[in-house]
Amino acid sequence: MRIRLRRWMTWFVIAAAVAVAYVKWATRVVPAPEIPRPGPSAFKEPEVEMDVAGAARRVELAPQSAATWGEYGIVLRAYRQHPEADRCFQVAADLDPADGRWPYLIGAHLADADPTAALRRGIHLSRNKAPLGI
């Protein structure tokens, strides 16, 4: 009888440890990437500053949303803040790898700025992705 009870207790302790580990893993807080912000002298018009600040605020409210990061990147790109916009697009691409908009927008800017680097990046991405089956 004692042997059976010990086995039961052993399995109970193992199951409890697995449950605790799963709960800790499932409820972990993933730190949000730092939100890129243009310098204070980047914009001269108050409307532009408000537009950028509003998009940044939406990212602060939903830091795990690829859409908000991408929209912030689009706003930054519209006002020619390319390094910050590319960083936003990269975070959006990391958060939602299935969405092709964000790598495309990074590549479009890179193709204008440095075509050779864009070609290298495209080759690198094509080698690391599974074939589409087309």
Give structural notes:
The chain is elongated, with a radius of gyration of 23 Å. It has helices at residues 2-26, 46-61, 66-78, 82-95, 101-113, 115-128. Helix 3 packs antiparallel against helix 4 (82-95) and helix 5 (101-113) runs antiparallel to helix 6. It has 134 residues and is mainly α. It has a domain at 46-128: Tetratricopeptide repeat domain (Serine Threonine Protein Phosphatase 5, Tetratricopeptide repeat, Alpha Horseshoe).
Summarize the structure.
It contains six helices and no strands.
Question: What key phrases describe this protein's structure?
Answer:
134 residues, mainly alpha, Serine Threonine Protein Phosphatase 5, Tetratricopeptide repeat, 0% strand
> What is the residue-averaged pLDDT?
84
- Class by alpha and beta content: mainly alpha
Main sheet: strands, sense, barrel: none
Strands, count: 0
Per CATH, the architecture of the domain at 46-128 is Alpha Horseshoe
- SSE topology string: HHHHHH
